[in-house]
Specification:
The complex is a heterodimer of chains A (354) and B (177).
Chain A (H helix, E strand, L loop, with lengths): L5 H9 L4 H9 L1 H20 L7 H13 L21 H23 L7 H14 L3 E10 L7 E8 L5 E7 L5 E8 L4 E8 L2 E8 L8 H17 L5 E7 L2 E8 L11 E11 L5 E10 L2 E15 L18 E6 L7 H13 L1
Parallel strand pairs in A: 6-12
Antiparallel strand pairs in A: 1-2, 1-11, 2-3, 3-4, 4-5, 5-6, 7-8, 8-9, 9-10, 10-11
Chain B lengths: L14 H4 L1 H24 L2 H20 L7 H23 L6 H5 L9 H11 L3 H11 L4 H8 L6 H18 L1
Helix pairs in contact in B: 2-3, 2-4, 2-7, 3-4, 4-8, 6-9, 7-8, 7-9
Classes of the chains: A alpha+beta (354), B mainly alpha (177).
Chain lengths: 354, 177
């Protein structure tokens, strides 16, 4: 028999070769050397492609999913929504979703990820540091569910330029992965946009030549965060449990009911639970219920990724409106009230349509 | 109802073979770990891998409940997961079109890869073409050529050749890093 080809060598290593190839590999020194070398490569590559282990949390999630016959959402699965599930349009919920997510990312994350010996003032300092310390363009990707405001879990992609005030994009993808809404602003160019998609159709509103709103979406979030920090300072009763899983150590932080004590509280956190990576203190999962502006909410969050890049490396189109062919495009100029620009543009187009 | 066969051989028929949920649990116990590692290797993303594994076992449950073919369910599981991984990859490309390479920069930290050689090996895997990574990931979970062919949607007699080339390309990628 002739010496083995590369494919036959591979087959010998994989246990898929015929009798003749196996016998030859055993008898021929050259082929035996090739087989041994290939075996070492296969061992190395299979080790590289076979890492990781199912965590107990994920295993229980699968068991739940099989028992229920529908997807389970990990440790963040919400308790039964205690509030009426009024179904608003996804784009209306975008701001609420942003606010809820921001609370998680900027307020609860730093607290949850801190050693329990930290004082409230240290937590506050760390929160502020997290909020103000980021440089460049930050990309946050997370799964978010807000009871009463969203139907199903949504994937949020949140892009913020920390070096250029008023430059951001916030996109909301539905359970099927399709874009539902996106809002963004390029303050230096005086442009803002809103894209709404429903049932395969899209509407894009471009607002140009105007000053940025006095209060932008990120700034509204910031105000909410400051309120949250004040409120969280009042709470010192959170519990911490440590789970050593196959995937590494996890901290589970649970907070009892928290209130500001003010009858006119803008924000109440009734309960919260966070799963935090023990290595880098990134929050992995989070669920909470409370109220914002006296409106009850219940939400869950799962961080998928967080990246920070230098501003110069991020092309302008990442902040642009994600329009597609066939979208209805409404161009409008800013008026004196930036918050009503979009509504004004819609009304104007409707009037023209008549 | 047919008994469940997971690896191409006739299996003993037990209560779990009759109850789809029990059968799905048993199959998860047998193949869940391998399937998860396969998805994690293919997608380089833990959260996505978990989602795909969950979807795969829910599809399996439906498959069993509807009286679907119960022969070689291991290959069936990997075929469904491989398709889901491909879909997931396309989905990511759709909403993150501007930085396809971002995935390589933002994959989960290599917490279990303290050894430089192993880290390089994993980095080299990530730069391979999807089909190369798919075949290597299937091989890493111990699938036979026949099962790999089913999962990858290729001819069985092409598996050895394609796998050998994939490993060659991986080796070159390791050497160039």
């Amino acid at each position: 028999m002739n010496c083995l080809t590369d494919i036959e060598v591979q087959a010998v290593v994989d246990g898929e070769a015929g009798e003749a190839s196996r016998v030859h590999a055993a008898e021929c020194a050259r082929c035996r050397r090739l087989v041994d070398e290939r075996r070492r490569d296969v061992t190395a590559v299979t080790a590289a492609a076979s890492s990781g282990a199912i965590s107990p949390a994920f295993e229980s999630r699968i068991q739940r999913a099989i028992a229920d016959g529908r997807p389970a959402r990990g440790a963040t699965t919400l308790r039964a929504a205690p509030f009426g599930a009024s179904r608003r349009r996804a784009w209306i919920s975008a701001a609420a979703a942003a606010a809820a997510a921001a609370i998680v990312i900027f307020v609860i994350l730093p607290k949850a990820g801190s050693p329990t010996t930290l004082s409230a003032s240290e937590v506050l300092g760390r929160s502020l540091q997290t909020m103000t310390g980021a440089k460049g363009v930050e990309l946050l990707e997370y799964d978010l569910f807000v009871a009463g405001g969203m139907s199903g879990s949504h994937r949020i992609v949140h892009l913020i330029d920390h070096e250029r005030k008023g430059r951001y994009r916030f996109s909301n993808y539905g359970p099927d992965g399709a874009l539902e809404s996106s809002v963004g602003q390029e303050s230096s160019a005086g442009r803002r946009f809103l894209v709404v998609r429903a049932e395969g159709r899209g509407v894009m509103v471009n607002i140009e030549a105007g000053a940025a709103p006095q209060v932008s979406l990120p700034e509204m979030i910031q105000a909410l965060i400051e309120t949250s920090i004040t409120m969280m300072q009042a709470n010192r009763d959170q519990t911490l449990t440590v789970h050593d899983t196959a995937a590494g150590r996890q901290y589970v932080v649970e907070m009892p009911r928290v209130q500001t004590g003010s009858s006119a509280a803008a924000f109440d956190l009734y309960s919260a639970r966070a799963v935090v990576d023990g290595q880098d203190f990134r929050i992995q999962e989070f669920e909470a219920s409370g109220s914002v502006l006296k409106q009850p909410y219940s939400m869950s969050f799962k961080l998928i990724r967080r990246t920070i890049r230098p501003s110069a490396e991020v092309p302008a189109e990442e902040f642009a409106a994600p329009a597609t062919a066939g979208d209805v495009v409404i161009n409008a100029r800013a008026d004196k009230d930036p918050l009503s620009d979009v509504l004004t543009a819609f009304v104007r187009e409707l009037t023209r349509g008549k | 109802m047919k008994p469940i066969e997971t690896t191409g051989r006739a299996d003993d028929s037990t209560q779990s073979d009759v109850d789809p949920r029990a059968a799905a649990r048993r199959l998860f116990a047998e193949h869940g770990q391998a399937l998860y590692r396969f998805c994690r290797s293919t997608l380089a993303h833990t959260a996505d891998a978990e989602d795909v594994v969950q979807d795969t076992f829910l599809k399996l449950l439906l498959h069993l409940q509807s009286g679907g073919d119960r022969s070689n369910l291991r290959a069936w599981l990997f075929a469904v997961a491989a398709n889901a991984c491909r879909d997931r990859g396309r989905w990511r490309m759709r909403w993150l079109p501007w930085r396809a390479e971002l995935d390589a920069r933002t994959v989960d930290p290599d917490t279990d890869d303290d050894e430089p050689d192993r880290r390089r090996a994993r980095q080299a895997l990530r730069v391979l073409a999807p089909r190369d990574r798919l075949l290597i990931s299937l091989r890493a979970q111990g699938l036979s050529y026949r099962e790999m062919a089913i999962a990858a949607g290729i001819a069985e007699n092409s598996v050895g050749r394609l796998l050998a080339r994939a490993i060659d390309r991986w080796k070159r990628a390791v050497e160039s890093t």
